[in-house]
Every structure is written in C-alpha cells, then in structure tokens.
Amino acid sequence: MPASVLPRLLATAFLCGASPLPAPAVPDLIPVRRQVVVMGTLCTLNVYASDRASGIDRCEDYLRLLEETNRQLSTWERESELSRLNRHPIGVPYQVTPSLCRLYGELILWNQWTDSAFDPAIGALANAYRSLSTDRSGLQERLERARRSSGMRHLEFRRDDCSVVRRAEVLLDPGAFGKGEALDRVRRLAGSRGDPPWLIDLGGQIMTWGTPPGQTGWQVEMADPHRRKEAALSVRVIGGSLATSGGSERDTRTGDRRVAHILDPRTGTGAPFQGSVAVWHRRALVADILSTALYVMGPESGLAWAETRDLAACFLDRPQFDGERRKLRVRATRAFRQRFSEMRIMESPASAGHSPGSRPSPRHEP
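The structure corresponding to this sequence follows.
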C-alpha cells in the first residue's frame, strides 16, 4: 500500500511581530502490516504510522488487548472468566468483573430485542452438534437434553452486585459476540490516544479507525457465500465495523445430514439459510451480534426487522435450481445502500457454474 503525504500544518505562532515560524514538518505515514493467530482465528492488522518501529509497537498494543479479551471470554481457555462462570455451581451467585458485567448487560438486551434470534447461552447445544461427527449414539436424547439446558432464560443477572446465577447446566458461547467485543476494546484505546488510521480483520470481521492517507475509505471485498475463492461484493468502509456471518464454509455433514454451523436458538436446530449476511455498525459488538441474529432470522424476516430499525444489513445468496446455484442475489436494506452507495457486485456471467472454494472473507485494500 503506497504511503501518502499528509497536508502540512500552517504555523500560527508569531514572535513579537516577527515573521511566522516555519510550519513543523508532519511525518509521512507508512503502512505496517502484521498477521497472527489470535482468538482461534487469523488476525490481520494494517496500521499507518510515522515509522515502522512505532507501527509495530501499536500492533503489539492492539494484540495485547485482543489476547486479554480472549483470556477473559474464550471457552477454550479453562481459566478464562467465561469458563469459570460456565462451570460455577448451579444456584450460587458468580461475581463478574466490571467489564464482563457491562458486556453481560448488553447481551441480555440484544437477546430480548432480537426475540432470542441472538442467544449466546447455547453452548451445550453447540457442543452436542459438534459431537455428531464422532458419536451419533443416543443422538436425539443428547440433543433434547442440550436444548433443555440452553438459553439466556437459565441465567439470572443481578445488576446491583454484578453477579450471575446459573439455574441449569447452561453454557455461554462467545462465538457471536467475542470478536466484536475485542475489536471495540481496540477502538476505545485508539480513540483515547488519537491513533493514526488502522484496519483490523479478525477472522472475517473488519474494524476500521480513520481512513488511509489520501483515500476516502478502506476498500473491502466480501466473498461469495458459495464460492469462497471469489469476491462477490466490493464496498468502501469509512469507520465502524463490518461483520459477516455465513454457514457454507463451516457447515459440516454427517452422513446425509447437513449440520449447520449457525444454530437457531429458538428451535434448537440449524438455521436453514445457506447464504451470508453482512452488517455494518459503528460498534463491532453490535455488528457481530446482528450478523448472527439476522442470519438466524433469514432474508425475509431479517430484512424486514433490520429495515424497520434503520440498520445497515445485506443478505447474499444463490438460489438453487435443479442442483445448481444460480446468479448471486444481493438484498440490502436502505441504510446499507445509502452507506455503501458505491457498492459493486463483482460477479460476471461467465462465473456461473464454478464450484465452491475456501477463501476467507472479507479481503481489503486501501
């Protein structure tokens, strides 16, 4: 990415009627890029800095925050705060830290506002479905038991002392909110310091701060939901976060049964939609939550729900006919089309009939 020269600042100081002091030189900003696996996924950091050393230091600052969030929320870390809550004795209050207290309050609100299309307390159900590939014995009984112990209704939140009480063997799963929370923590740090522009791609969720020098935004390409090596949609992101949820690349099959990666908490089964959903919001946590909730709702209900709330959301899918995927269908809310008025559908007629690939989504460039 080419670096651009920032505008020079005009001097405003005068000394006793003397000529103005020379304008201080503002250093050019150069791009610094870092890739690392964090929170169980590939993370790409693109930052602008006055020199490479300071850019690397900022990358380290941001990574420390991402790793700190992972240590708090990951259910793969046995001693994370979320893991300790998940195995805390039933009926005994668990005192959460202030950061988790704030976050938990938001999770409750979004669970209510989406009529449980977003419900992070489905860890038991998710674990049951994951086990299908290796153990199908007592399948229906295990799934039914997991359904009975899933849902935010089994968790009592006491705001007065920031404690949570488990009323069943319920497990919180950060899959639909953890990345968003981590990216928001980076955004808050950058805002407090007035950091130069950056973009972070955390496993497919984009968060941006500022715009690249000489540019009007960050160009982002979203992958085709069924042809992961191909770009389907190109948009220019100016601030905020773009989160994408899709099942095609992570859905699995057990025999002739499709096991959806994204579950519908309301039914306890896999969400039937097989395309992808992109949501932009100024807060990464909200974009993360809503991309999952709208995927669960599906295009018809999800678009209507988002439209009435003036949310920037877009559904991508390919209708299937006679076993073949047809032309890419893009359905976006008014707010999405207004924010990304220059969005470009990248499919060409010659691409029809290609087989699915496995490219991560989204891609980006300045």
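The domain at 187-365 is CATH 3.10.520.10 (T-fold).
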